[in-house]
Design brief:
3 helices, mainly alpha
Length: 71
Amino acid sequence: MKTHVKHRLEMVGNVRWLADAREVVGGHHERWNGSSYPVGLSGESIPINARIFAIADVFDALTSCRPYKAL
């Protein structure tokens, strides 16, 4: 599961118009307290767009069916 960030960064890495997406892809699993991946960023060092996307991602995880989540 944790490797998807690396793979997605490779996908968007060389596409200039996806520069903002790189911040989201690379930072949406970083947590405010630093207990996160892939880098272990914390607090305001996490890009704001990644923090916003992380909230949306958690909401989606809590409210939708996912193959790895029990019904």
